[in-house]
Specification:
The protein is an alpha+beta fold. It has one domain: 3-Layer(aba) Sandwich (NADH Oxidase). Helix content is about 40%, strand content about 15%. It is built from 8 helices and 7 strands, in the order ααββαβααβααβββα. Strands 2-1-3-7-4 form a 5-stranded antiparallel sheet. Strands 5-6 form a two-stranded antiparallel ribbon. α4 packs antiparallel against α5.
Length: about 220
């Protein structure tokens, strides 16, 4: 997959910019976008699996351990199937950010924020491609480990189910951080009937009380 033009407006919001970026910030973002689009080649993998609701939690046929928590039960309510998704910008994105940090922290920040915007766009495109090839009547939005009360410790089970390390080079640390860092895992519920649209964004985010974006009056996701 090749990157399409990246939303610099989204990247600017990640930088904490309110309104239109000033010329200096705009130049940083333009340069960062150019570098990322030239050097980064994103990848994604997915797997459709069955969904079973048990007393222990929501069990996906492809995963060895149940997904626990109230939020994931609400999110997948009425769904008998789900799609597991993992997407990454690859190690090249992390390399660009690290290299810039040695000589130019402002450019490193711009690269970091451009990459954050880019990986969300990659997930949006992946989702469109997946469901164009596998049409369904209704689906939920993406829900990731660590969101709401879904344990972030499930990252390893997600990657094992997708064989993501071999297929796209995506691994997880002992502290459940994804490597490369500009990566996303998520589950999307699939249903033949309309799905309940539960709370999203800051309302269910476990970081809402300490979030720098929220403190500045900025939301970190465009649909939240």
């Amino acid at each position: 997959m090749e990157l399409l033009p990246i939303s610099k407006a989204e990247a600017a919001r990640y930088m904490g910019v309110k309104g239109t970026p000033d010329p200096a910030v705009a130049e940083l973002l333009d340069r960062a976008e150019s570098l990322v689009m030239e050097r980064v080649r994103p990848k994604y993998v997915y797997l459709e699996t069955d969904v079973t609701f048990t007393d222990e939690g929501v069990l996906l046929g492809a995963m060895a351990e149940p997904m626990t928590g109230v939020d994931i039960k609400r999110h997948l309510k009425g769904c008998k199937r789900a799609v597991l998704l993992a997407a990454t910008l690859s190690q090249e994105a992390d390399k660009l950010i690290r290299q810039a940090a040695v000589t130019d922290m402002a450019q490193s920040l711009a690269l970091d924020c451009i990459c954050s915007a880019a990986v969300e766009q990659v997930c949006d495109r992946a989702e469109k491609e997946i469901f164009a090839a596998n049409p369904c009547r209704y689906r939920t939005w993406r829900f990731s480990p660590g969101y709401g009360d879904l344990p972030i410790t499930l990252q390893r089970s997600f990657l094992l189910a997708l064989n993501a390390q071999r297929r796209i080079g995506l691994t997880v640390t002992d502290s459940c951080l994804l490597i490369p860092s500009k990566s996303v895992t998520a589950v999307i519920g699939v249903s033949d009937a309309p799905v309940e649209r539960g709370p999203k964004g800051c309302a269910v985010c476990t970081m809402k009380d300490s979030c720098a974006y929220r403190a500045a009056g900025i939301k970190c996701g465009k649909n939240m």
